[in-house]
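Usage

Read records sequentially. Each one opens with the input sequence:
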Amino acid sequence: MNTQYTTPEEFKDIAPFDDCEIKEKIAQLVKEPGFEHAIKYAMPNIEYSQFVNNLLQISNKREFQHMVVAPFLQMLIDKTTSGLSISGLENIDKDKCYTYISNHRDIVLDASFLNILLWKNELNTTEIAIGNNLLVFEWISDLVKLNKSFIVKRNLKMLQALSAAKQLSSYIHHAINEKHESVWIAQREGRSKDSNDFTQESLIKMIGLSGGGSLVENLKRINLLPVSISYEYDPNDYLKAREFLMKQRDPEFKKSQRDDLLSMETGLLQFKGHVHFSVGKCINPSLETLDENVDRGEALKVACKAIDDMVHAGYYIYPINYIAYDKLEETQQFADKYTAEEVAKFDAYIEQQLAKNNDIPNLTQEDVQYMRQMILTMYANPLKNKIKVTQ
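and closes with the structure output:
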């Protein structure tokens, strides 16, 4: 990492802070009441004044990640998971920078958990793409930029959206080829609420806007490396089921800022079971099979399929995924993959999650059954997609 690096002006509003800005930004951050409240809420036993003194000694992003982010994440891993694991590290060349592209389960933790796994295996951490819809206060924006995050501008008018897409694409290429930093980005805007993960063509098209060559050449320059993320339990499953019901009642339903904050808090602090990351192989060999005059639409389809196949093949399948599949399909196909005790435990878990939605107005038994089906779908879809690419 180049501590003398200075971000070009064209990227200043979206890029992580430069190391020379870190002390000033931390000094501002610790004065924010919202930041103090968040830290005390997430870490109730902390001695806040000592924590602030330690923060004020930090002088670069690497120290910030090492001294603040890593201990916080380790605390979350210890308290809210039954273990974190990774496979496929042999697919990472230490001398290359990559665009890690993954399915998206948790708003905050997907890239954070990947980074701590890379760090523990003595690999460079990534810069993280994060949507500005989540940055509801300026101090949150500052906090994520201290943690090597860059901003994805969302919900813009058409001309602004095109300009923002070009800026973001240029920044990703700049990060990889000029800063020599890997980046992480989700395979689609927002999370797939039903865990049916497919890459958004428009996202790949955006990434390929910059680089000075054809779409295929531009994509090859940023080394797209698919990653599969498998959470045993999704703490937000009941909130996602609730959103499905709200949209069934009103197709125009939109989540509020408060809903986003609740999803972030729930994903961070509630139990996730075991969490596994599987690093696939860079998709450049798939892109190299394409003729140089290939149609852009065809090139996008090939790139998306290469990512999707790798993500689907890499899922770690838990007993509850097999149970959900058999319940949904009304079959005993995978009965040898789980026990009666595991079925009873999963049934109890689903009822416990559904009970959290009892405050929904005019809730009927049909509504509850619909949400139950949606939760089962969330847990069955990774297995369904894995079957399609591995059998």
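Summary fields computed downstream for this record:
- The chain has a mean pLDDT of 94.
- Residues 235-270+317-391 form one domain.
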